[in-house]
Amino acid sequence: MAVRPVPEGYHTVTPYLTVRDLRKLLDYVQKAFDATDVNAMTMPDGTIRHAEFQIGDSKLMAGEASEKWEPRPGTLYPAVWLGRDRIRFADFMAAEFPRGVTGTPGHACVGPIAYLLGSDLEKVEVSGLELTIASSEEPMTATLERAWIDDPRPRAGRTVPLKVLLRTYRGDEEVRTLPITLPANATGTLSLTVTDGGRLGQLEQRETRAPQQVRTIDQAIKVLNKARHNRTLYVKLLGSEAGAVVNGELLSSLPPSVLAVLEADRNSGTFNPVRSATLAEWELATERSVSGSRTLSLTVSPN
Fold first, then answer.
1. Which of 57, 141, 227, 267 is the most buried (most CB within 10 A)?
2. What is the pTM of this model?
3. Average pLDDT, the chain
């Protein structure tokens, strides 16, 4: 009889977590992810040394941290199927299990699902859950310390290198480069903002000044899938052209005649003027959960 290299019920690779208070982790995954087949190895003093459990069709293992085996941070990458549509929450948070297993990553995963299941828009049933956990031996966090354009005279229509300096958890410096192509019509003094997902979300919320109206589950899923991620830096090039937010939708670079019509016809919906326009946007993916924001004043010459 041939020997099975992978035991029945397991995949080729099985994630292993090392955490403090393993019992609390097991309680959490059962409540948050409906974990099943929980098998624990309990020591004489009552502590759980090793455990295995199943989420969906995947087996996971976990062990109690000790002096020999330190806690290891991890990142959750869940994806949820709601019958016809898929919701992805990839790259949303780097977790540090030593600080408590019931922190933000679990809330960020469970919160949107609970919102959809509790919505009165229509009945929602979860038809599947895919959960990927990536672990690291050190906290995968960094701070954005500096951003600059490595070109003494940027020109409209040209590609210039945007460089950012990240400071890691251990104090090391990482320099990342993002080539950005300036729009052909972007000239004069402009503003370039480099920011993390949380701060960008706050900025956009201030711009719209009104929450987006969600009337269907499909709209709700689209909003959730557009959520900003902590492992991505977002770059916005802003000009001084006026715009407006009409019924929660941002309209940039509007001519004065259109602004005048919208201002005069406020009865047709909500209208809020904005003082700047988004000329271009870029994203820089990182391997860390990055926090910070920098804004540059950029003088762009005609091509």
1. 141
2. 0.61
3. 76
